[in-house]
Protein 1
Amino acid sequence: MRHLYTWAGILVIVLASVAGDVLLARAMKQVGDFHQHWRRSGIGHIVGRVLSNPNFFLGVAAMTVAFFSLLFALSWGDVSLVAPAAASLTFIGNAITAKIFLHEKVDRRRWIAATLVAAGVALLAG
Amino acid sequence: MRLTNLFPLPALPHNRHQIGCGHSEFDAFHIQWGRFRLSQRQNSKDRAVATANLNRTVPLSFFQHCALCLPPRSTCEKAANLGVVEFAILGREFALTLKKNLVLAGVTVFAAAGDSMLSHGMKQVGNISIHNLQGVVAAVLNPWVAGGIVLLLAFFASYMNALSWADLTYVLPATSLGYVLLALIARFVLHEQVSPLRWLGIALISGGVSFVAGGPALTAHSHEENILLSKDGTAPAGAKAQGGPGALRGPEGPLFHQQAHEEAHNEAHEEAQP
């Protein structure tokens, strides 16, 4: 029962944080390179641009859901299981969604990485 | 902030390839750093002053022998300014690389430390349920949980910074060291059991994600630094940084006068003060 709770928690974390990551990544690409904004116009400009981006708030909402699921899941399972499992499955989900929605070039190198991470997650779960 | 004070440059191996000027990369960078500070200013008068300083105090041969940052020798003599400008771009790029690596390190450390503090705090608080919202409030008031939340906020800031200049599929794996850190913290600080199989899993994850770290950071957009350099008719920054064909050729020998050097450095720093 405890394991079921833990894995249900992990599933919610993964779904929410994949959504959050993709939305945030899109928002930050729309905002542009922080370092260049910083040089040209200072930190206020960055904050303004970030706070006027709707994708940012959607991403933060999804991340908040992920965060509270993490709080619950951490009270049910070990940190060395919950955190890596959730983060790694998020990573695989991200590889797929980033290719589809963010048009990133997920090449062989990155797919191999995703596979190795999946194997690592399986071992962690066992 | 003086990054050069915090990080002794000779200890960074890629500095040699990226700058590769003269017999002392450390000093070469100081000049670059000065130029970098100056080129940050948008005021064109400041920029002109800085260029003049460098031209006066740094012998032209310095630019000729500086294989990496240099236009061909013939154009160099005619257009020392071009050398200065490119020089500045390389310096800025190096400083940027340093900053970006710091951002990635921040993502890793903050995430791992924050998760661990949260875990420790939640174990103290005990199980919380959806029906008992007071339990959630009590959890947030626990110092470990609160500290964990602060660290995760710091993680969030660095994470957004990283996402603004790199792919999502690059940032996540580049922080893989966090899993190793997490396991170490779980084992030695929280005293949780970490079995050999889990260690193997953590090793696989780290190995897998290190694949990604070797590739380009950004695939969805072209890189502005590269465009800047290409405009000057030289190779893109990426090829230089990896020690490509253009890396470290050019005549050997004592290239740079220590005196002129320090002078330039001092002047550059003085100019850099706001």
Protein 2
Amino acid sequence: MSVLLDVQELQTRFQVRKGYVYAVNGVSFKLEEGETLAVVGESGCGKSVTMLSLVRLLPPAASIENGKVLLRGDDLLQIDQRQLRDVRGGQIGMIFQDPMTSLNPFINIGTQMSEPLIYHRGMSKKEALARSAELLEMVGIPDGEARLREYPHQFSGGMRQRVMIAMSMSCEPAVLIADEPTTALDVTIQAQIVELVKELRDRSGVAVIWITHDLSVVAGIADRVIVMYAGYIVEEAPVDALFEDPRHPYTVGLMGALPSLEGDTGTRLTTIGGSPPDLEDLPDFCPFHTRCPYSIDRCRTENPMLEPVADASDRGHRAACWVDIREVEVQSNGAGASS
Amino acid sequence: MSQTDNGNSDALVRVENLTKHFSVRIGAYGETKATVHALDEVSFDVQRGETLGLVGESGCGKSTAGLTLLQLHRPTSGKVFFDESEVTGLSDKEMRPLRRRMQIIFQDPYSTLSPRMTIGNAIGEPLWLHELASGQEAQERIAELLDDVGLNPAFAFRYPHEFSGGQRQRVCIARALACEPDFIVCDEPISALDVSIQAQIINLLQDLQEEYHLTYLFIAHDLAVVRHISDRVAVMYLGRVVEMAPKEKLFENPLHPYTNALLLSVPVPNPRQERQREHTVIQGNVPSAISPPSGCRFHPRCPLAFEPCDHEVPEWREVESGHWVACHAV
């Protein structure tokens, strides 16, 4: 498979009164054609800022300090605004978390949906509306033509998210970035949206980057997973390897913290003590060491690089940790460390 | 886990046919009067020392159930009993001594703490209002409460903005505990928090329950969380409880098609299993509570719906000991 998107050493920071907040600190990853990559992490880990950096949709206080974002060889960080407009919505489609605020309440769905088609595909208004109606039916909104005249408030949350998906897929992008698309939705609607995205992906071959904090959703949709913490990628692996053989203590902790629908409920959940660090300095130590049950002296003085793990079942399994956690017994840890 | 070792009929809270309708005005200029059927004929009880989980999707009335039960909403009809005495119909003044024993923790720890009040004062307020402690004694109690919820007692003089979401939720829990309640309604206490923090709060709630013999009504939309923390679970759909059972029964042998659909919608954190699992996704959306469907409210989305479902409200009945369901097809 060929590489579609190649992100290299991306660094983004925010200017704040006291100095800087280092949100993304040297993130590198590749996305292959047709692949679904999940990016997992808690709020503030830099997962959304990473994705916004790719298409340069950052707020004014943020600046990209370093890195390359190669989309089929073109560096998105170097091209001018005009070319960038062709990329946004044309080659890269985006869906955001909150379907309530990503649509304009004053403009009917048809007009909003035809905008990218007219801009990127050069369609006439009439053609664009006809295509929009088809797209609505494609994402499971019956009677698409009539609904084009309706306004966002006439749609439920799940329906609005379907509209957003239809819009982001309308120009047949090569990459679809979905930023927590199901977080604001109920579980039955979440299941509908996940199924819809899978179906569209399988039909169109679009590569998907699915950002989420919910590991359970990842299991069903991703081919590969990146786990982020404090602006760093701390683990990267194919989905099976990640769930069966997690190697970073943070990943292990996240999995232990998940209550499940099976197994014994008498046990306590494994927790990750403390809370994530503030990102006001670039650390010269492992950013997770203060919360890590496995930490050793080296963790306090050197920040580990993302490197292939020992005895991996897959060559693409990498983790940023000084410790081989399989060799260490930790009390209070019961979950996740099976292989 | 706290398991009830009490007898079967030792209910701390009992709710009988509780109904809450809200009058609203709809249309662009509010020209049409309408009624939101937020809660209709809901009956359940919460045994002393147990956790009853209340699950359902947004708008199903689970929060309204919690608030109406605490008389924070006045019910349209129906009765609530607390410790064998009826609380519906009591005046605010008569309610006050009971409020000490029934507390609530809300979903959003950001908006439930006054930004102008130190957290010590926020936690101390119930102590002063109920005249449980004052002066030095109150300060000591606040320090003790902060310690109970895993916060440094020195934090009492800080303001909410200095804390993270998880820490604020701990403050809210400390405040709910201040007047030594018997019963706490936990209204989605973890859904605004990050995954790793959620687990901390769940463990904390369980530890406190054990230590202080608390009874919880745990309202949530996350079935995995509810399964973890509850002894019994009630499932709500559009203002009605459709199924209630001890959690093992409910999760292993769900009887109501809605419960079943909910369980199938929950993603499993295991990629191999998830690939093999059948994905029968429940279609459609939750209908509006302003004009709920006739008969069984689930019938327009139900795969099992047959003749009586669209005009006859299914009876709320006990199909086996402790397992209640309202469905014609069961």
Protein 3
Amino acid sequence: MGEYIAIMIAAITVNNYVLTKFLGLCPFIGVSKKLDSAIGMGLAVTFVMTLASFATYLVYVFILDPLSITYLDTISFILIIASLVQLVEMVLEKFSPHLYKALGVYLPLITTNCAILGVAQLNIQLVQSDQYAFGFMKCLMNGFASGAGFTLALVLMAGLRERLEFSNIPAVFKGAPVTFIAAGLMALAFQGFDKLVTITVN
Amino acid sequence: MDKEGKEKKDSKDSKGSKKEKPKGPKPLKVKKQEYKVWDVPSLSVTSSPHVHNMDSVKKVMWTVFIALVPATLWGIFHFAFDFNIEYLSGAFQYDYKKINDSGLGHLFTSSPFLNVVVSIIACMATEAMVNTFRKQKISIMDGSAAVTGILLGMTLPPEAPLFIPIISSIFTISVVKHLFGGLGGNFLNPALAGRVFAMVAWPGIMYTQDNYLTSVADTKTGATALEFMKKYIASDPNVAGGNADPHTVYSWYDQLIGNIGGSIGEVSAILLLIGAIYLFVKKYITWEIPVVYIATVFIFTFIIGGKETYFDLSYALYHVLSGGLILGALYMATDMVTCPLTSRGQLIFGVSLGLLTVFIRVYGGYPEGVAFSILILNLFTPLIDRVTMPRIFGHRSKKGTA
């Protein structure tokens, strides 16, 4: 149980995908204008990250590894994630229109989110390195917690941007530039979580 | 009732209909007469606020500045002359040799003094420069840059080379403050952002890893009290001062007065408290954040305890009195711009700050967690404000909104 909590804390704070690995910046900048849409996007990413961890683990362990074609992992993961998202979208539309509406346009957008591929890759690396006895459940946990970390960063940024809307920002910095600088300052603050929990692969 | 009302209405109508066209501007005349009757010619109708207390940004900022001066002076004297006050006897202790050799002039060339002064000057100069670039009125006399400067200088180690205050000041005033709209627009506390910037950029200088405490008198090059404790808890064999218990080296009295190592302005807890009481009496800071923050740290460290013990009172006192907790809780967490607005929000803010500080201090990679936890919670401030917003009168919660 303690290991799962450690994975959770590490993925949300220490190894936050946006603020320490700088992955998934396009939705981070694009969808953080309003809090409501940020929460929607965060939920969608969390959902897909968990599913992607699930699918890529199975594909890696039962197809790529036995056939010793693990060098194809990146390209196969891209395919898996893209098709998975499309499939999930269709299934959701039929079976849970409410959730489908809530996730809205964010679901197809996520297909191209590099943070998802990053989570899949990191999971596989952790499985390979054999350091923390990374199995199926821990991969799922890592995927879910990484999504939660992404949501946290997105929600924080949305709060800040709603506040920044009313401040007297120099004209050249308005919009994306000031958001990137704010993201840099957020990353500076998140440095404080350094070494709180260490789960890294090198 | 009805009859009277009707009669009145009738009378009014009849009057109105009779005298409507020829005497249009009569109501104005009536108003003028009313003014004369009630004798309130200066009554002006404006929107709120109706009550002013004559506090301006300038006054508040310079008051905060003055409140910070005693603790800073203590830090400068303490680190420049090894100035201490002994327990019980209250006798002053200082380095006679330094004063005899170079007199008090040594003070003005000493590193702690220069660090504080340079960071104040650099902050004000950057402020003036940015004002010029942005074609604004030069706003250095409102004191906000000076307060940022003195706070930044207070958080620096006494032997820091002078490029650190200069670069940190430029970074903090131009990027953290003015890029987001100047005073009131910054979402992080500027002084702390500068401090953390320096800490991340030059960790070797900001934490003197090599020079561990050798004697109580030699506090200048010694490790900060918290670093000492962290190494002691971790049983690190590289501690040069031996495996002495930090509790015996630094008594609670030393920590309260400020006979310890640390950053320039954070060592003297008592002077910081006196300054804060002055600000509290002036109502420039509220009690919620500092009290809740310090209490949370105290209770949490009391429960987890020090080396292999739980419920360790001296360990809790050590955590409260040493390090930047008092300075951060009283002067930085209470920054009007970056702390939550409502009382409920400030309580949440304080408790989270306390928990995060202890987490970073005890389990994290840095010995000090105050700066980071205040910055992290500053990021949460807009969300806390949103959640704890007082409800508007007549508000009804809607179902189905996210």
